[in-house]
Design goal:
471 residues, mainly beta, Immunoglobulin-like, twelve-stranded parallel sheet, 3 helices, elongated, LRR_dom_sf, signaling adaptor activity, CDIRP
């Protein structure tokens, strides 16, 4: 039974609380370790009562809370102008910073975080959240980020498409399958090892100096645009060829345990390669370097000796079939022994098959590859009802199309062809079964201009006319 005295005391207590709330705003801090940390920092006074005067924390810009055994950061939302927060190595499961709009640096590594909300912290430049249990991380609104460390989590994906200022990205040891870095053109350090990435495109990352992408499923790696790179760690992948000829600043390379069959180190600065490991690549026939007789004693494997300066020295001969040019109304691709038919050079374009009927004029390539070494031939197919064709132009730019000027003569009526420049100087004599004129004279490319042909037929008749060389 409540006595009148107790009623009076309760009434006094509630009136006291109401009077406090009228004059003093209170922040609710239910975690005792969090409140104790605030007491230690001078923002609260004993005893622990889950309440902190909001005025005491309203102007705090930096908060050091690491290793305090904190489980709940409720109350952090009232640190309105907070710019730096370190709550690393606690026991946090959830970290909601959606009301902390001025944050510049957040360090929350080594917790048990499954949820992290920094979506409204648009000024954030440094976010270190590694060593948690995050399966999702949204940094789309954090466009000012310079450094992002989210390694050792459970991330399946990471969207960095808006992070144009990113300089350091570490997302190692997650479950990421794809990483789009095309917008992060300022990226200098990339650590993405220990994921499930099969395709890593760094063609836009011109400023890259350090790349660690080991323990993935990468089959192809092009670092030709990253000319400032000093270290490449790409071991334990599926890479079959690695061309480092553009990377003259390279100091450290580990490409061991891949499927390499070609490694090109001819960057003009092999003497600076102090640490290099290409061991456990059983298909690697030879290694291309600047100087085959240099000192490679620090390179691994130590007993490797097949260093060469050119592909020819590797001793790999790739056979390929050759076919004559064709002109006529219908053409069927014949069966070949060495190589496959393609519509573009280098085994690119569409794959064509023996027995396939060719209905349009085109250049067809026969491409063959053995252990990263390749060989190629090509021939022209002209589909026409005419028996004799004189091209009006050609473009000798080594793109595989119209690279030579050649008369197509089905019935072999041509005896020879003379080619003159506009001043009457003889530049080339072409005979039957010749590959035509490649646009050079004594090894020097001729300029874009009009040239003249004199075609002598077997009958003695001479055909004359102009054609154009275009570059």
């Amino acid at each position: 039974m409540i006595t009148m005295a107790k009623k009076a005391n309760l009434l006094f207590f509630f009136v006291f609380l109401i009077s406090i709330s009228c004059f003093t705003q209170i922040t609710y801090v239910p975690d005792d370790n969090f409140e104790q940390a605030l007491i230690d920092l001078g923002y609260d006074t004993p005893p622990l009562n889950d309440l902190v005067p909001t005025a005491n924390i309203a102007n705090v810009v930096s908060l050091e809370l690491s290793e305090k055994s904190i489980q709940d950061l409720t109350g952090i939302e009232d640190f309105k102008i907070l710019t730096n927060l370190n709550c690393s190595k606690n026991q946090l499961d959830i970290l909601d910073l959606s009301n902390n709009l001025n944050l510049v640096e957040v360090y929350c590594s080594g917790n048990n975080l499954t949820s992290l909300n920094v979506s409204r912290s648009t000024e954030l430049q440094r976010l270190w959240c590694f060593g948690n249990n995050l399966s999702d991380l949204n940094v789309m609104n954090n466009t000012e980020l310079i450094s992002l460390r989210c390694e050792n989590n459970n991330l399946n994906e990471l969207d960095t498409s808006t992070l144009t200022n990113l300089n350091i990205l570490s997302c190692e040891n997650n479950q990421i399958t794809d990483l789009d870095l095309s917008s992060s053109t300022s990226l200098a350090r990339l650590l993405c090892g220990g994921n499930f990435i099969s395709n890593l495109n760094i063609s836009s990352n011109y400023m890259l100096t350090y790349l660690s992408c080991e323990n993935n499923q990468i089959a192809s790696l092009d670092v030709s645009n990253s000319k400032n790179i000093k270290a490449i760690l790409c071991q334990n992948n599926l890479i079959d060829r690695l061309n480092l000829s553009k990377n003259s600043n390279l100091l450290n390379l580990n490409c061991s345990n891949n499927d390499l069959c070609k490694l090109d180190l001819r960057n003009g600065n092999n003497g600076n390669l102090s640490l290099i490991n290409f061991s456990n690549n059983p298909s690697l026939t030879c290694v291309l370097i600047d100087n085959a007789i240099g000192n490679h004693s620090t390179w691994q494997p130590e007993n490797y000796t097949n260093y060469v300066t050119s592909e020819k020295e590797c001793g790999v001969t790739v056979p390929v079939d050759y076919l004559n040019n064709f002109i006529g109304s219908n053409y069927t691709l014949p069966y070949i022994t060495y190589g496959n038919y393609f519509t573009a050079s280098g085994g690119k374009g569409s794959l064509l098959y023996a027995g396939q009927n060719i209905t349009t004029s085109q250049t067809i390539y026969i491409y063959n590859e053995i252990n990263c070494f390749d060989n190629e031939s090509r021939f022209n197919v002209i589909i026409t009802d005419d028996d004799f064709i004189i091209p009006k132009f050609f473009t000798p730019n080594n793109d595989g199309t119209n690279d030579t000027w050649q008369v197509f003569d089905v019935n072999h009526t041509v005896k020879n062809i003379l080619i003159f420049n506009r001043y009457g100087k003889l530049l080339k004599t072409i005979y039957l079964n010749s590959e035509g004129w490649d646009g050079t004279f004594n090894g020097y490319p001729q300029i874009t201009d009009t040239y003249w042909y004199h075609i002598t037929l077997n009958t003695g008749e001479v055909l004359k006319g102009p054609f154009t060389l275009k570059r």
